[in-house]
Amino acid sequence: MRWLLALALVVSAAGEGRPELHACVVNAKAWVVGARLTGSGLVKLDANREWQQLGFVHPMVLAADYDRQDPSTLYLAAGNGLIRAKDGGRSWRITTGWDVTELQDVTVDPNTPGTVYFTHTTGIRKSSDGGDTWQAADAGIAEKYCETLRADQSRAGHIVAGCVNGLHRTTDGGASWQRVGAEGLQIRRVAQSPHQPMEWLAGTQGGGLLRSVDGGATWEAASDAAVDRNLYDIAYDPTTPGRIAIGGWSTGVLVSEDNGKSWERRSQGLPRWDVWSLAFDPSQPGRLYANVHEEALYVSEDAGRSWRIAGLEGAFIYRLYFFPGGQQ
After folding, report:
1. Distance (Å, rounded) from C-alpha 237 to C-alpha 228?
2. In this model, does residue 191 exceed pLDDT 80?
3. Which among 236, 251, 255, 263 is positioned nearest to 306, based on CA atoms?
4. pLDDT band of 3, cuts 50, 70, 90
5. How would you classify the pairing of strands 244-249 and 252-256?
6. Please, what is the average pLDDT of the chain?
7. Quick one: which of 9, 99, 89, 1 has its CA closest to 296?
8. Angle at 324 (CA atoms; ends 319, 328), nearest 5 degrees
9. Which residue in 139, 252, 267, 292 has its CB near the most CB atoms, within 10 A?
10. Fold topology of 1-59+229-328
11. Residues 280, 321: contact at Cβ < 8 Å?
12. DSSP for 86-105?
């Protein structure tokens, strides 16, 4: 059985020029044992709407972020360690040791230059020098498997992590963590509003959507949308306050135009309702990308009301992001 895993999709929002779409892909749908794995790793959709390979062929990259001081440097959370990818993702170097594998997520603190955090199967680590050295940074998290974490874009040292047993937050750069909600729930994704920095959303496995309006200090149920479903991604539209999309298994794409007060299913034109990842294009209001499990990447120009294929047929795309583009 063939698989095509696109494990981290990055849509880069350029300071100059148009955004660039990146994806971390594992193309194994036609793969057999002993064959060369092709078309896998970091790829970019160029101005001609063609995919280009960047860096090495790689079988597993789950997440990415970028250096705010040098946007041509990316950090990739991969199966074999934390990869620092310079030159717009072309030159790769693993910056962690043999004891760190199966990374789940990575985030850069935009308010503290050189500070990077990642999660792996046994905890959270932090670098204060752009990935040259790493230290454990998960004191206070008892069950240390965390699938998702995000640095607060407005406050240095504030990080929210979604773990196997609830939501955790640090306000001191990872020196200490406190569980702040969702005990007993596994968290699949956290997202911060680009319009209201104190607002966060969290997608759970089986517990629906959660919301915080105090910077992640406390959480409550956001709505009854997708309760009893696994929510795999959350996307705020940076061009349109109040517009949010969520997606998950047997959920399809749900879109709110009133900041989560009500939700509309916008899955017409998608081949199935199993959605792994979502992202709004920051340069084009209403342009929404969605990945349908082992089908393709789809794009909508009207916030999910209609869809067309955007490539990566057979893809499982694990994450979507917007990063600065135009890097050489």
Report:
1. 25
2. yes
3. 255
4. very low
5. antiparallel
6. 88
7. 9
8. 110
9. 292
10. Hemopexin (2.110.10)
11. no
12. ETTTTEEEE-S-TT-----E
For the chain, the domains span 1-59+229-328
Q: Answer whether 182's CB lies under 8 Å from 210's CB.
A: yes
Cα–Cα distance list, 185 to 84, 141, 239 (Å): 32, 14, 31
- Which distant-in-sequence residues (6+ apart) come within 8 Å of 173 by Cβ? 109, 112, 115, 126, 137, 156, 157, 159
What is the token pair recorded at 170? Answer: 């640090």
pTM value? 0.91
Tell me if 279 sits within 8 A of 289, measured CB to CB: yes
- Looking only at Cα atoms, what is the longest distance across the chain? 52
Cα(281)–Cα(203) distance, integer angstroms: 21
- 21 C-beta neighbours (distance < 10 Å), count: 27
In the sheet that holds 178-181, the strands lie side by side as 146-151, 159-163, 166-170, 178-181
Q: Write out the H or E segment, with its range, that includes residue 53.
A: strand 51-54
Q: How far apart are CA 252 and CA 231, in angstroms?
A: 10
CA distances from 77 to 74, 209, 226, 311 (A): 10, 25, 28, 23
Task: Pick the more confident residue, 25 or 110.
Answer: 110
- CA gap 8, 271 in Å, rounded: 21
Integer-rounded Cα radius of gyration of the chain: 18
